[in-house]
Amino acid sequence: MRLAPVKWIESERFEVCFFTDSRTLKEMIVATGIGAFPRSVSLLPLPHNNFGSPHSISNPRNRIRFPERKSSNFNFIFSLFIPTNPPFFSIKAAGASSSSEFVSDYAEEPATNVKFPTLLNLPGCSSSLSLIGTGFREKVFAIIGVKVYAAGLYINPKIIDKLDAWKGRTSAQIQDDSSLFDLIYQAPLEKSLQIVLVRDVDGKTFWDALNDAISPRIKSPNAIDETALSDFRDIFQNRPLKKGTFIFLTWLDSSKILIHLSNEGIPSTSEATIESENVTRSLFDVFFGRDPVSPSLKASISNGLASLLI
């Protein structure tokens, strides 16, 4: 692998690296474990005869001046501006971070501006969970789309070790083939979907919409399924859900899910445990199957997985 960074400069707010060509830049991204461009990364061609900062930094004490240098060995220099807290997903966030990893504390879902922590510690989970994608749910009323909630999927980092067969796949390939999501579901490790309401919703209305998506996926519900759905419904009945409410749907394994609700940050206890393989599988399929209720969420997760499985 050819790595030839021309210049690397660090400050408290950003890190800058200059490269002689885009291929070297791509190699460096892979080598450092970044995996994919976050939205906040700028890849800019600069004139070949000098080094300079393509942007002025708003904070004067962090402004860096670059000396002019003459060169005729290459046509362009590419600059990679990586803020100290870039909004992208890295499974390495669950472990000890090294100085070469650029992992933010939060990632913002762009359509709703809801911020999700990149690491999550929930009651009932054996380890920290890592954020791998965000999206939003929209309902259409009289041809007008209304955003109801933002959502982010967290997984136990060990799940990635079980997906080696998918290395090198593009995000489009991952999104179009549900078998990878089936593997994630079947893995006996925790997965949690965090839902953040962006408007007030009646609890019954929220459950009715969720049930309308779950029930058709259970072709022949048995007594266990009926009990699980009843317990699920009771959590939301006669319960107003205010804007900003957190709802966590946490799959412990393929037949058990924990429900957490909170109006004030991460909950300290779970509301209920739902035990039914048909219900838990159908719920997972609602969000990550072939016809997800939030296409933006599945697309974001597919992008995150593609950047991790390199």
From TrEMBL:
Pfam families: Chalcone (PF02431). It comes from the Eukaryota. Belongs to the chalcone isomerase family. GO terms for molecular function: fatty acid binding; intramolecular lyase activity. InterPro entries: Chalcone_isomerase, Chalcone_isomerase_3-sand, Chalcone_isomerase_bundle_sf, Chalcone_isomerase_sf. GO terms for biological process: fatty acid metabolic process. It comes from Lactuca virosa. This is Chalcone-flavonone isomerase family protein. Residues 113-307 form the Chalcone isomerase domain. One of its GO terms (cellular component) is chloroplast stroma.
